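Standup, Tuesday
Yesterday: got the pipeline producing structure tokens again.
Today: sanity-check two examples.
Blockers: none.

Example 1:
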Amino acid sequence: MQLIKKITDYDIVGDAPEVLDTISRYGARGVLVDDGCNVAMMYMSKTNLYKLPGGGVDENEDSEDAFLREIQEETGYEADIIHKLGYIEEHKKRNDFMQLSYCYIAKAGKRQNMMLSESEKQLGMVVKWMTLNKAIEVMNDSSIICDDYSDRFMILRDKTILEKTVNILTRLEVKQKH
């Protein structure tokens, strides 16, 4: 997989762009699309922010399996990965924490039950389906209202994933028409 972006304190708070050399956590996340090319966004009512489905990769778990598990837990949908986007590094110098997230696009399948964690329930997490353009718009809005250091990394990461997805899906549509 190729690097999509390295996010550092420079991108978030304007500090010097320091890169950490130890990975603190592996993540798997990305875009879940339905038949109408709508995107599943996770809305957290407690913070009034949006994020993409995804989370941590468990020990001895493949990142693709982790992404599909996270989709099922957070959205209730079974899914199939249709494209590997690459990976994003988040270098949170103030927290001495580096997260490497493997990023994918998946197609929603059969709907089942959501299995939110306690912390996700406390955040008031729900799925909201919207167009890709609307998803980028709500991420832009979130970046304006959010002043939390770690959440700002999440917002920039997920906005970057959505923008990369627009480019990929546009190319896939063009290929399918020819």
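Example 2:
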Amino acid sequence: MQLEERNQSSGVTFILLGFSEYADLQVPLFLVFITIYMVTVLGNLGMIVIIRVNPKLHTPMYFFLSHLSFVDFCYSTTVTPKLLENLVVEDRTISFTGCIMQFSFVCIFAVAETFMLAVMAYDRYVAVCNPLLYTVVMSPKLCASLVAGPYMWGIVCFLTHTYFLLTLSFCGSNILKNFICELSVIISVSCSDSSIIQVFSFAFAIFDEVSSLGIILTTYVLIFVTILRMPSAGGRQKAFSTCASHLTTITIFHGTVLFLYCVPNSKNSWLIVKVGSVFYAVIIPMLNPLIYSLRNKDVKESVRKLMNHPTQFIEHFNP
């Protein structure tokens, strides 16, 4: 029976409702989202390139930042092109396989970003609380392991959720009330008993959010205690400035996630989820490189040098 349902599901076609109910806003929304996507691509790929070409930025902090940029680029590229397509074409369908693939990549990169931010918090903790041992503690081997962890856990989450999604059957309306194949909207149109997958999904979401926030809050409590104990105001300001960009990023990211978890069950809930999803999947990947580039002196200096001496950039790739 399970195999039969799985075979039936493979032939299902979904319709991504997106923003189709706002006919007059299709073109303005397309222009807004394509602008955001271009900034996202240039910002995140630019950040990766700048970190790669500048030896001064070959440190654990920027190593983690380059992976955060990679995750943001992949996440946005998984979501935004389909969103843009659905704003300009009449046919807003997506196959079951395509929907599952989109969900899979979204799951991997969303989970990876959640724990990448926790890894970056630990990096800041070592830098502020144990500066003399920073290069010893944050060895290349440990950095590689800390980066691999979020990706591996994202794959575990996606495999688990995908297994349960493949057991669902669909026999009614296949209109997804979002612009993205997100777990809750896929489950909402299934005619199978989805209680098990909802329990697993809730358990994974709670574990991811509580564990990542637990790491972040613990490290920052220790960081603030250390900063307050510093004798000089200049030392305190310098220590805090190294954490400011990361604090801004995690506040926006986890604030959005917690907001989506607290959406009430009402007629307007799908609209709120849709708006939250736009912020989570489209806007945040654009904001992260801007936050780090605008607030980070080393990154701004690297950008300025790259703009003033572009030949150095060319020579790096053509030695």
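Quick observation on example 2: Residues 1-7 have pLDDT under 50 and may be disordered. The radius of gyration is 22 Å.
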